[in-house]
Structure formats: C-alpha cells, structure tokens
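> tool_call: predict_assembly(chains=two)
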Amino acid sequence: MIRALFAGLAALLLAGPVLAEVKVQQVTSPGGFHAWLVEEHALPFTALEIRFRGGTSLDRPGKRGETRLMAALIEEGAGDLDAQAFAEAREALAAEFSFDAWDDALSVSARFLTENRDASVALLKSALTQTRFDQDALDRVRGQVISIIQQDAKSPNRIATQEFDRLAFGDHPYGSSRNGTVETVSDLTREDMFEAQDRIMARDRMVIAAVGDITASELGTLLDSLLGPLPEMGAIIPPPAEFQLQPGISVIDYASPQSVVLFGQQGIKREDPDFFAAFVLDQIVGGQGFASRLMEEVREKRGLTYGIGTYLAPMDLAETWQGSFASANEKVAEAIAVVRDEWAKVAVEGVSEAELAAAKTYLTGSYPLRFDGNGPIADILAGMQLDGLPVDYLVNRNAYVEAVTAQDVKRVAARLMDAGALRFVVVGQPQGLQATE
Amino acid sequence: MAFNLRWATLALALAFPAHADEVTTFQLSNGLDIVVIEDHRAPVVVQMVWYRAGAADEARGVSGVAHFLEHLMFKGTEKLAPGEFSKTVEANGGSDNAFTSWDYTAYYQRVAADRLALMMEMEADRMRNLLLSEDDWRTEREVIIEERNQRTDSDPSALFSEQRRAAQYLNHPYGTPVIGWRHEMEALTRQNALDWYRKYYAPNNATLVVAGDVQPEAVRAMAETYYGPLAPSPEIVERDRVKEPPQLAERRLSYSDPRVSQPVLLRTYLAPERDAGAQEKAAALTMLAALLGGSSQTSVLGRKLLFETKEAIQVGAFYDGTSLDDTTFGFYVVPAEGVTLAQAETALDDTIASFLETGVDAAQFARIKAQIHADQIYARDDTEGLARQYGEALTTGLTVKDVQDWPATLDAVTEADVLAAAREVLDRRHAVTGWLMRDGQEETMQ
C-alpha cells in the first residue's frame, strides 16, 4: 500500500474566498521527492513542473551557452529513440514537453492525459535520464542556436539587453547572453552536453509542482519512477555577482527610425524586509497596466512612446531594477529626461495616498486571477519553491501588500531610487542625446 | 526542438471550442449577441466585446482608423475621465486591453467574478457615449505612430510581411496593414475616428463574450441592465467587401535590409476560409498545414529539409481559416548556412511535388488526429482562449454551431480530402513568393 507510506499531507490552505480552490498538498514520495500538489479532477490531464536551480549560471568558463543547448537537446533523442522517433512517440500520446533554461534555473514543463499517463511519463523519463545527445541532433540544433545568436546581434532590443547586462555584471555569467557566442557554441561537444546535464539535473537542487487529475499517491509513484535515476549532487552554484553598473548614457548606433532604451539601477533582494514596499513602489512608478507614473508622463501626456514599464528583478545572485521603452529618434532625449525627472521626484516626494491605494488594490486583486488553469498554477507553485517561499505565502501574500504604508514607500523610495545612478542604454540614432563616455 | 527562430512565430492554428454544455448563447432585443462560457474552477471572469468592424472595413485613404479608434476608446465618456476606464479596472485588481484585426476590434477585461457588473457598466457606456477632446486625440496619434515605429518600421521581417500582404491582395483590403500606412496615419483626424465610431459601434454590431465563473441567467440579467438600453444603429448592414479577382500570374518580391541577419523564404497562396456551415475545405487545409509543416521533427518538410538534406534550419507551414474573406496558406524556409534562397525554394517546391505524388503518411495522419483529440481537453484549461475563439469566429462570419462542429469536422477529414485541397490551393500561379535578404548579399530572383 503506497498510500500508507506517505509521510503525511500538509493541511489544506484556504487563502480567503478567492483562493479557496487552490488547495496545496505537500507530498513526499516513498523515494523522498518533495512536491507541491493541487488535485483538480475536472479535466483528465496533469500539468507537471520540475525546476533545477543554477540555470545558465552553471555554464563553465569558455563554454557559455552549454546549459541552453543541452536543454534544447533533451527532446532530440533518448533511449532507443532518435529525435524523429521520440517526436513520433510523444505526438502519438499527445503529451507536451518543454525544456528551458535561464539565469537561475532549468525548467521541465510537461502535460499529459490521464488515459496514457504511464506511457507519457515513461517517455519523459527516457528524455531526462537517457538523453542521447546524438551528434547529428547536436549539429542541427547548434545551427539553430547560432542563427539566433546572429539575429540577436542585429536586434536592437537584444543589443540593448546584452550591453546593459555586460555593464552591470561584467564577466559573471549574468553579464553575457545565456545563448553563448558563435565561438563558444561552435566548440561545444557531445561530452560537454553530458557534463552540462550532470551539473544541473540533480536531486540536490530540484523543486516539483503538479496540478491536475492525479492523487498524492499516484504522484509519489510517478516521481519515484521519473526522477529516481537522477544523480544526487550537481555542480556548485557560483557566488553572487558584483553589481558594476555605472551611471550615465550609452549610445549604440543602429539605423532605425526609433531608439530602444533600457534603463536601470541596483534593485532589492527578495528577502529584504522592504521588498514588499519596493514591489508596491515599482507598481506605482512603472508597473503593470496603464496607470503608472511613467505611462502617464511618457505616453499619455506626451505621446513619446507606445509603452514604458519597469520591473524589479531579484535574481538568486544579484538584483536589479530595470525599465524599457522605445521612442522615435527625435523624441528619445525628451523621454529620457522625463524618466529621470520622475525618478528623482518620487525619490524625494514619495507617492500619494491615492496612488498607493490604487496600486494595492491592483496587486491584491490581480493576484488570485493568476491561478486560472492547471499549467499556470503549477508554474506559480514551482516559482514559489525556487524563491524559498512557504506554502502559506499563498494566503499571506496579499496581507504583505496591504501592510505597506505610505511611510514605507517613502522610506524605500529614498533608500533605493537614485536618479543620478540610473544607466540608460540607447540603441538607435538618438537626436540631441550625448553619450557619457 | 526547444529553440524557435523569431521567424517561426507564424503559428499553426488548431482552435478548439468548449464543450457545448458549457456554452449558452442568446440575443438582446437591441441585437447584441451574447455568448456565456462557464468555467467554475476559479472565481475569475473575462468580459470581451467584439465589434464586427476591422481594418478591412475602412474607407480608402484612412488606413489605421479602426486601430486609432481602438486607442481612443480609452479616452473617456461623460461618466469617465480619460484613462479612468483602465484605472478603474486596475483598481479592481483586473487587467484590460484591446486589439484590432482586419475583421474585428475587441475589448476585454479580466477581473474577479464579482466585479463583472462594473465592467459591463463601463463597457456599455463607451459603446455609445465616447468623448474625444482636442488634446487627447492628437497625443494618441503620436502614440500609434510610435507603435508603428516599434512593431513595423523597426523590424525588417514585419516590413517584409507588410509588403507581402500588399502583393497578395490586389483589390481586397486585406492588403492594407491594420496599423495603417504611415502617411495616412499621420493625417488621421478626430473626425475620421468619430465617423468610424458612429458607423460601427452599436449593440447590433457587437458580440459580448463572458467566460468564467458566471451563471448564464445572471449574465443575461446584468446585460439587460447595462447593454439593454443602448439603441441599435440603423446603419449596420451585412459586410460585403470588394472581392479579390482571380489571381492569374505568380507574384514575386525581394527585400533586403541591413538589419536582416537571417535570409528567409516566404510563400503564401490565396486560400479559402472557413464559411458558416461549410468548413470542410478549411479543415482539410488545416490538416494539410499540420502534415506539411506542423512539427519540425515529423512533418513532411521537417523530415526532408531539416533532417535529410539539411538545407534548412527552420521550416513551417501555416494556415488560419478564421477569416471573413479569402485567407492564405503559407510556408517559410530558413536556409542553412551556404544554401541560397533559390536552392531553398527549389527544395520546397520539390518536397511539395513529391508529397502530392506519394500522398499522406497514414501514421502521421493518425498522430495528428490524436493531438486534435487531446487539444480539446487541453483547450478547456484556458477559458480566456476559448472566449477568444468564440469572439473571433462570430466576427468572421461563423456561428456558435460552426465553432462547436470544428473538431468533428477536422476529425472527419480524409487523406483524399487533404490531397484534393492541396492540389487546389498549392498552385504557384496563385502565390506570392518573397525573399528576405541581407543587405549587400542579395541574390538575383529568377
């Protein structure tokens, strides 16, 4: 009786009326895998989300791009099946698998029907634990990656991102494109792929979330079978990145009617006691929707852009506060001046009670709206675990937002926002704008 | 294959409806059509209002006015100040936006289910009571020009697509970009926008879709309260646009731009769309696109050009039959390093010819049918997606029954149907072939 072996399921959580349906069970499988589960039997399928910490930051020196190329190859042949036979098997089951890697994590996202769950999971298991990394698949996908790298080199948005990251993080993996360069990717070998896989896909850095038509005991059995063969330990995650961004304006010449602008400064850690105040502040300055200060000043009042937004990026090894927009070359200098002015103004004055109230009702009201499907819920639960948040965060999160006062916002604005520290990276042919170096 | 080249965002659309028993439809006496899709898993609702008016309904010379008005719909009424609509949605924890296509313009809000009445009150208000101040419309015209800068003029593949469409349609307005031609956008006026608004924005030219944690009877009562009093417009008539003449001669275009890093071959054929009560040919073309270019690993083009000859690094086929008038069926090929566009085009044509000779692979056909079956389940996990399917269908000449019949129509397609549709549509005399090239590395088109 597998059911009897379960270590005990956490209490059901009720997060107010709106989250009443998201009942998270904390499951420990007989083999020791921990997972968060939401049973939802209305539709006969399950969404499964597995993430491994470390992401592309685990790329070895000189092998930039190895984690992403490896992730792209997971479904390009496994066990007895070459890339085409694997795809045929997956399509016949109508299962969907996707693999991605970014700075801090590698993700495995799957959804499969209840009617053929065992066969789907067996196929996914072969992909995760018996990846072939055939030379012809490696060469084929490498060609696609190199094409993307070459396209990035001519994309104003990507040029701006890469320059911003380089200025902020230098030689740390955060400072360069996770796709690697044409040179590094060209040199990657099959052996590198096996090595890159072992460095990240290990039991010591994994989080798991499942949502759908599956019980706790069924999930336990599934996880033991699927993940049992993974190695115990992966590679050491690199140390925090030094934040090196200097104030000023960079201009990269690019022939286009419009300039793309990325701007930012240092951000705030997820664990910081002021994080929620900063989160509310960001919403007011440049967050979601049409109501932010910057949307009002740059788009609505002056028509200088189609859209402008900011976000806090508390990553595992560094934290930034960034924003972006695009403006016609003849207008971009004015738009940058407006952004600077608003940044300086909020740092000194804080925000109004009305702005604070509107941001809080938006943030608290929109939170439950995210939980609207098996896939999205699995995604949120996996993200929470990566951030080290407890299950009861689901219940308490809105209270953390509610607790932020105008005084908190003012204090955090004064502490964090520094118009003089902002760096603007401009890609285009801006008129009347002087680069600082 | 987890990497998608940017070019490959042209998606293959296999759209699936909700189960019939979760969908309720009715009409108010002023002509407003209403579709309610129930999904009680989460206390969320999406309200969408779809107008049967899009860029292809614009008069000549005012291209972009449908989209311009879409922006101006957020500028207020007697009851709401400019910008207050979105601010109110956001202050209620919701999100809102709008989109314009050739056949429709749609507005939506996603909110907690208990805020639906407020959303209806505001959406009904702006259906008939829009106000436009002098300052607001001028600033917003700058915003849409920045939008064109961002979406089109900064992106050579978008410019290329715009040129390709213009070449595809000699007479039909599908050849004009939704965002508008720049010189016409710059001349748009408040009066242009108001003329458009008064002509098309009325309950008898709209479909309301409400999807989520709602009861149909409650939606009906609420809709009667807010939309019910709105007067219908006597000007609304069935859309009957100019027809595209038969295409007799192949059209070819080439475009080079210093911002292109990756040459691309694009081919589109004029193709029939889904029609009410007659979706069979569109279903066969949807299956054809899946067979020829749906999967990198297992499609006919993927097997041949990515695996066997390695002449390409990306290939695909696309067809979207949800369109009021004639649509297109297309292919794209991203050639491998050292392969010319001329070689890529020959490879594409040879592969199509050989498919027409050898016919459909039965195992591949069965796998696609299995995915169609599964997608009906997966689609029900995305209520907002379902709402979009109904809204799009009902503003492109289809009925609720057509939407609900679609999976069965796809399932009934035979191998012979696919081949017949392929022979009819894949004729280069009815096609536009485009080459997107790097500046300074142009090939001569034959």
